[in-house]
Amino acid sequence: MEQKFTGFKCKSCGRVMYPKHDRCLDCKGTEFEEVELGEGATLLTYTKLYVLPEGIEMPPLVLGIVKFPGGVRAMGQLTTDDPKIGMKLRPVWGKLRKMKDKEIFGFKFEPLK
Hints:
By secondary structure, the chain is mainly β. It folds into two domains: about 1-35; about 40-113, CATH 2.40.50. It is built from no helices and eight strands. The strands form two sheets. Strands 4-5-6-8-7 form a five-stranded mixed β-barrel. A three-stranded antiparallel sheet has the order 2-1-3, with no helix packed on it. The radius of gyration is 15 Å and the shape is globular. The relative contact order is 0.21.
């Protein structure tokens, strides 16, 4: 089953946010609908972590902030060891880490080909 990267659109004012908040950051509305953010995002910034939390197997852990069309920003792991500001990425579902013998899955961002 393919996972889609979704944001949350305020039913009152139309602002799209990620992650979901209890209230809209603009109008304070409380009703939202899920909307797909799309396949492409642009890398705004990144960092490489070498001292890693338990369950991350291979240093460095590369984290980035990406921007989707429409302005929504998200943070997540990058699958590349050679990120470049402005590069195009897409969200993919995969294993993020292992904690107490349990695999944790979520979205990562990989370069668009």
